[in-house]
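User: Fold both of these, please.

Assistant: Here is the first one.
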Amino acid sequence: MSKINTLLLDCDNTLVLSEELAFEGCADLINEIAAAKKVPLAQPFTGEQLIIEFVGQNFRGMMTSLQQRFGFDMTDAELDDYVRREEDVVIAKLKTKLVSCPGVDDVLARLAASGKYKLAVVSSSALRRVQASVDKVGQAKYFGPDVYSAASSLPKPTSKPDPAIYLHAMDKLGKKADECVAVEDSKSGTLSATRAGIKVIGYVGPYKEAEREKMVQVLKDAGAVIIMDHWSQFDKCLAKVEAGEV
């Protein structure tokens, strides 16, 4: 008999098609920071380039990586200010243009109606941004207060692939790893859940056709036990996990 009673869902490009919009705004800000810090970029960052390099990480995590790569420093106050500015830029874009991932709203409605599972969001992004996203597309009713952010919900902000946010979510929900299944679209997110002991359904739907095959392997290598490329496949994937087939 399956013990699974909780579904922990990533937000960006898993529930909502937000990554492209978010990284567009993010690129402008990172190029501004590079200029201010006199970082010699071969060419300015683009949203598309940032997605390839940093999908699944939040802005704080990206800035940590970029400081290490380019050898510049930033005070905590500076970083906090840029994090707030990035949130504002991205939220403004999301409130204008955000839509749900194809097919997910039907699945959420069915899961909620069944009453079989606790539904929660587990994201790297700032809580304000995640809440704005699920509000905009009408998904907030499925999660209530159970929205967890690695950037905002922890005593010390972090980002996936650190498993801290999944461990925190399970603690708050009173759940164990073998009661949960996660859905993730990125390497860092998949690693985060897997490191917390949770089985992951990988989702590659939002990737362009040329990248999709590569991402299937990336997510499998990161620990995803099964892959779907559309939410219409979710029920079958979950059934296989519940049956212990994967």
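And the second sequence with its predicted structure:
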Amino acid sequence: MFGTYEEFTNRYVKFFENVDEQFELQRGLNNCFAYDLVPDVAICEAALRAARRIDDYATAVRVFEALKIKVDKKSQYQDYLQALRPVMEELGVETKEELGL
């Protein structure tokens, strides 16, 4: 299906750039996170942008929950948060912990 991690990343970035409804966004996230790998930061950014574009804040927050579960080490999750922080600030998205939940 995918020859390389780059092809996987490109496919899902393009997918999320074209999402225009909640069902498709959540289906894409379920499919993407089902693979035995952690999605690239570019995929996460595209998914966050899609969630905000369709006004689905809850799913944007859940992207971080999925990442937290998917990574092997807490430090990896922190690396994702650091890499995605500018997008989070731009879009006004916070993690569950930042929301106090």
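DSSP finds five helices and no strands in the chain.
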